[in-house]
Structure formats: structure tokens, C-alpha cells
Design a protein that fits this description.
By secondary structure, this protein is mainly β. Helix content is 1%, strand content 46%.
Length: 402
């Protein structure tokens, strides 16, 4: 089971629903591709954030600001492995010093060296970060301390691992409240700002009131193995997972209410591929949920499959053999292997999906609008600005697609 601290993918939404309230007029042409220089780091997938008329790319150990024409405006260091957020028109980030800082739209520092709980420990992972006007809510993982083994017994923990949920006021050292929960999370935490609820996944789903740090409820999720999850504004939780302990077991898409009631489930009859790694269920308006497998896009409503799009089909038409749902296509030819990686739904219900070097744009009814390939694997979830331009990042370049 994947723990929240074991991967770096960060979503702009604290609900991890991959929903973007914009549309695109792109037709699938690469407008430009700009090298990110020293800011690139192939072992740390980059994050792309739209900030007004500009585009920010964060990749260890720096973040780089571009304008819409691809001109690099500035480069600033940040702490490796920490999330970014744009709120109240400001950009919040943890500086190399481990303190929290913020910039306004004119690149002026509006918050400097604000203490961040656990910031000085390299072992502490920031799993969720949501800045507000006067304070922020965060979820941290502290793995615990171990003692040296005497050679006969394995290392014993002095302090067991735990998860810390807190609200911290700028720029104080100690926040309004915090709550420690024993154990490591099995999935990345969620926050429903509309309801002020933090949701954490241990052996049970734990709901915490974000106004006073009290546990509201906890309940089991009826799946043997969990893959990913997201939540909507009504606090309906959606999970990808498996009915058995191994990924080869039947794939399930499951929806639960905030009370733990099962609302619906859909079992995938296709057994030749698995859920796309690290991609939560994608929430569209009207209750539709999109889910990605290694090679397919699935649209499900109330437990019924509305449509599916097999991104491997183009290669199959040309007689290419596709194994285990992995593929990479350009001009109808199978070039290499590369499973689907990320997806984002837009305001009109259409969907942007990445796999290998390719970005696909699918309509709300499952038609392919375009596919476009870039020079290297796309590592970031797609981002779209207010003018409809699409941005993706590889290990070395920021790419705009029009």
C-alpha cells in the first residue's frame, strides 16, 4: 500500500479532484518548448501552477517563473519535496531555509521566515498545505525515531510514527491547534475547504474538524487494496482500488458518503491492466467520475460505465502488439512503452490526459479531439491558463500547447 510520504505528486486542489475551472481552445500544436535549466531534476516530477498571466514550474531544487510567451522571469530556490500554493493572490512556498515565505503578484515578499512546524527536520514530510489569509492548515508525517540495534534484535522505535494535523497562524511558531494521530497514512490526505474537514486514510478513514482539531468520525473502506482517492465539495469520497490484495485482482471504482455509506461501485471487467499510478479519480460537474487505467480512460456515473476510450487503439489499428496496457504512439506507430500518467477535467467536461510523451484531449462524450506528442515524457499534470493555453512539463522543459 502506497504511503502519502513516498511520492511527490502535488495537485492544485486539496480535494485532489484534478478539476480545472477553465476551458481550452487548443488544437494540439506545440507553441513553444523552453528549457528550465538548472531547476530541472529528473528524480522529482515537476509541478506546474498558473499564477495570473504567468506560469510557475517547481522542480527540485528551484522554481522558475515564465510568462505566457515562454520567457523565464526569475528563478528562486525552494525546499525539496514541499508543496506550493497560490492563495489570496500570493504564492506560498517553503524556502531553502525551511521557513515559509510568500510573494505577491509583483514578486514582492509579503511573508518572510515564518516558522513552519517540523521544518528543521529533514524526515518530516508535508503531505498537505492550504494557506489562508491569516493562517494555514497542514498535514505532516513524522516517521518516528529508532534506536541502534544491539545485533540480536531489529531497531526498536523510540517514538512511533505519527501524522500531525495543525493550523498555524502567521508568523507565530506555534499554531492555534494541532492533533497527532498514530501511524502512517496509506493515501495522501484530503481537505474539503467548503466543510472544513480534513480526511486521512489509515486502516480506517478518519475525518477531522479543521476548525478545532477534533476527530469527527472514522470508518472502514470496503476494499481489500486501495490505489487512490479524491473528494468533491459535497464530501463524497471516491476510491480506486482492488477487491483482492494484489493489483491483478478486479479493479473497483467506489463512492462513499461522509458517513461511510456505500453510494455506488463499478467493477472493471477488463483484467489486463491496472489503475494508473498516483492518479486519483477525476471529478467532473454533475457527479461524473473519470478514472485512468494504464491504457484506458473510463467515464462512470452512479456506478455505470458511460464510455471508455482506449488510448492503445491507434497502435492496434496498425498491427502493433501492446503488452500490459503500456504504449507510446506517434503518427499511428508504436514507438515505446509508457502508461497513462495524469488527467485533468476542464470546465466543459472535456478531459486532458497524458501518457508517455503524448497529451490527449477528449470531449465530454469520449471523442478524441486531438493528440500531440512532445520530445520527452510528460511528468506534470496538465495546467490551463485563462486564455486556454495548455502547459505541461518534462524533466527538462516547459511546453505550451495551443
Amino acid at each position: 500500500m502506497t504511503t502519502a510520504s513516498s511520492y511527490p505528486v502535488r495537485f492544485a486542489s486539496t480535494r485532489r479532484d484534478s478539476a480545472l475551472p477553465v476551458v481550452t481552445t487548443a488544437t494540439g500544436k506545440v507553441a513553444w518548448s523552453k528549457e528550465m535549466g538548472k531547476a530541472t531534476h529528473a528524480d522529482w516530477p515537476p509541478t506546474v501552477l498558473i499564477w495570473g498571466q504567468r506560469v510557475l514550474v517547481a522542480s527540485a531544487p528551484d522554481m522558475v517563473m515564465f510568462d505566457a510567451q515562454g520567457q523565464a522571469l526569475w528563478t528562486r530556490p525552494k525546499q525539496i519535496g514541499t508543496p506550493l500554493a497560490v492563495a489570496q493572490g500570493n504564492l506560498y512556498f517553503k524556502a531553502r531555509s525551511s521557513f515559509l515565505e510568500a510573494l505577491d503578484a509583483s514578486d514582492q515578499t509579503v511573508l518572510r521566515e515564518a516558522p513552519f512546524p517540523g521544518a528543521m527536520s529533514s524526515a518530516v514530510t508535508v503531505d498537505l498545505f492550504w494557506p489562508q489569509e491569516h493562517d494555514f492548515i497542514a498535514v505532516l508525517t513524522e516517521p518516528g525515531d529508532g534506536e541502534v540495534s544491539d545485533g540480536d534484535e531489529p531497531d526498536a522505535p523510540l517514538d512511533p510514527p505519527h501524522t500531525l494535523v495543525l493550523r498555524n497562524r502567521y508568523p507565530t511558531t506555534y499554531g492555534d491547534w494541532q492533533i497527532a494521530l498514530p501511524g502512517l497514512q496509506k493515501l495522501a490526505p484530503l481537505l474539503v475547504p467548503e466543510r472544513q474537514v480534513v480526511a486521512l486514510m489509515f486502516d480506517a478513514l478518519v475525518r477531522v474538524d479543521a476548525t478545532n482539531a477534533t476527530e469527527i468520525s472514522r470508518f472502514k473502506v470496503p476494499l481489500a487494496t486501495l490505489a487512490e482517492w479524491s473528494v468533491d465539495t459535497d464530501e463524497v469520497y471516491c476510491f480506486t482500488g482492488y477487491v483482492g490484495p494484489a493489483p491483478g485482482d478486479s479493479k473497483v471504482l467506489l463512492a462513499l458518503s461522509a458517513a461511510g455509506e456505500e453510494l455506488w461501485r463499478w467493477v472493471d471487467p477488463e483484467g489486463t491492466d491496472t489503475w494508473a499510478v498516483r492518479q486519483p479519480p477525476i471529478r467532473a460537474k454533475g457527479g461524473r467520475v473519470y478514472a485512468l487505467t494504464q491504457g484506458r480512460v473510463l467515464a462512470v456515473e452512479q456506478g455505470k460505465l458511460v464510455w471508455q476510450y482506449d488510448t492503445r487503439s491507434d497502435s492496434l489499428q496498425h498491427g502493433a502488439k501492446v503488452d500490459s496496457g503500456s504504449f507510446e504512439i506517434k503518427d499511428g506507430r508504436l514507438l515505446a512503452t509508457g502508461s497513462l500518467r495524469h488527467g485533468s477535467v476542464l470546465g466543459d467536461g472535456s478531459l486532458l490526459v497524458t501518457g508517455g510523451k503524448t497529451l490527449h484531449h477528449l470531449s465530454a462524450d469520449g471523442r478524441k479531439l486531438f493528440s500531440v506528442s512532445v520530445d520527452s515524457d510528460i511528468l506534470s499534470p496538465p495546467a490551463v491558463d485563462e486564455h486556454g493555453h495548455i502547459y505541461v512539463a518534462t524533466a527538462t522543459h516547459l511546453v505550451r500547447i495551443d
